[in-house]
Design a protein that fits this description.
This protein has ten helices and twelve strands. The protein has helices spanning 13-20, 39-45, 49-53, 63-74, 132-167, 172-200, 212-229, 250-265, 299-302, 322-332; strands spanning 26-30, 33-37, 83-91, 97-109, 112-121, 207-211, 233-237, 243-247, 274-281, 285-292, 336-342, 346-354. Strand 1 (26-30) and strand 2 (33-37) form a beta hairpin.
């Protein structure tokens, strides 16, 4: 694309592929000149490839951020390779600007340093007048779609950037490190897609009479060593003859998710770290309560805890899928789940399961 004889972007298959097919806008910059741009970048800015050949990258930046961003980009000649992410307005050909999250990866190829920039537009919601029921359902779909897009695009961005870097670095140790990261990000995407298939499908398997106490005990056995190593105590108050109709293994899975969430919520404090599980029954329902004395959940966040991929636990590997999956399991078996929480006091999750006669058992 560039007429600069001293530097020409590679014509490898992968570069051509991301130029034509990858949806994320991308551009490579050498000393403020755009030497490579994919189709998505031209669509974002409104400029053609020929337009971009004649422009400085700084000309696309809003005056409010231009100096600060270019100062960072120019530092490539003074420091070792690194990445930099910021949020800034990009000025389009029509004169309007669009707010983008911009990730800069600093590269070096054949002794020439360049910057690979990828852009992600920040979405702005637009209101639509619909009936409350339809609006609520569409809002749920929109949140799920946005969450999935975010969760999958993040590792995809890493993969694309690192593949580009791998093509353009001769350092074998760095290449091995980038390849390892790519494998990890591929596994992350696979995990998200497997979860989505599981979440969207019906719970398969035969419904049978399940002993609630036994299911909870099995879930506790899976985490008790981990809890013990973190000085978290589990107290389990059982209930006699607590039998419910359930798919084998699914109640254990639901309780395990709640225990893992409780572990993440508990931080070191002066009081004893603990999780209490109470099982009680009445004529129509069996109630399971899982209560912790962790950090709690704010009232605003309580409304979103069943949204897939929503999580407030940035200090853990929690991906925000435990509670939505538990909610899916319980409701698919005719049950209900309720959450109460007080900041800095703890959280209580209550499951109500209907009692019905299965194979002669109640």
């Amino acid at each position: 694309m560039s007429n600069n004889n001293e530097f020409t972007p590679p014509t490898f298959t992968f570069t051509n592929s991301i130029s034509k097919n990858f949806a994320l806008p991308m551009a490579e910059i050498v000393v403020d000149k755009i030497v490579f741009a994919n189709e998505a970048f031209t669509q974002l800015t409104g400029y053609s490839h020929k337009d971009l050949e004649k422009m400085n990258f700084s000309g696309l930046l809003s005056h409010s951020v231009r100096d600060s961003i270019m100062e960072v980009l120019n530092s490539i000649h003074k420091v070792s390779l690194f990445s930099y992410t910021t949020i800034a307005p990009i000025i389009k050909k029509d004169g309007f600007d669009t707010l983008c999250e911009i990730k800069f990866d600093f590269l070096e190829r054949d002794g020439i340093k360049s910057v690979l920039a990828s852009f992600k537009e920040q979405n702005q919601s637009k209101g639509i007048n619909l009936s409350p029921l339809i609006s609520e359902k569409l809002d749920s779909i929109k949140r799920l779609s946005a969450s999935l897009s975010h969760e999958i695009n993040n590792p995809l961005n890493v993969i694309v950037n690192y593949l580009y870097i791998i093509e353009n670095t001769k350092d074998e140790e760095k290449r091995k490190g980038y390849i390892k990261t790519i494998y990890q990000e591929v596994e992350r995407i696979a995990g998200i897609l497997n979860w989505l298939l599981d979440f969207s499908s019906y719970i398969h398997g035969e419904i049978s009479a399940v002993d609630v106490n036994e299911e909870i005990k099995r879930a506790i056995e899976l985490v008790e060593n981990d809890f013990s190593s973190k000085n978290i105590s589990i107290f389990f108050n059982t209930c006699e003859d607590c039998i419910v109709p359930f798919t084998e293994g699914q109640l254990q899975r639901a309780i395990l998710n709640l225990l893992l969430n409780a572990k993440d919520a508990i931080k070191e404090n002066d009081r004893q770290s603990k999780v209490v599980i109470n099982v009680t029954k009445n004529e129509d329902y069996i109630d399971i309560e899982v209560r912790d004395n962790g950090i709690g959940i704010s009232p605003d966040n309580l409304e979103r805890i069943f949204d897939p991929f929503f999580t407030t636990k940035s200090f853990t590997n929690n991906r925000g899928i435990g509670l939505p999956m538990t909610h899916r399991i319980i409701e698919s078996h005719g049950g209900k789940i309720y959450v109460d929480s007080i900041l800095d006091k703890g959280t209580s999750v209550k499951i109500c399961l209907p009692r019905r006669r299965i194979n002669g058992k109640v």
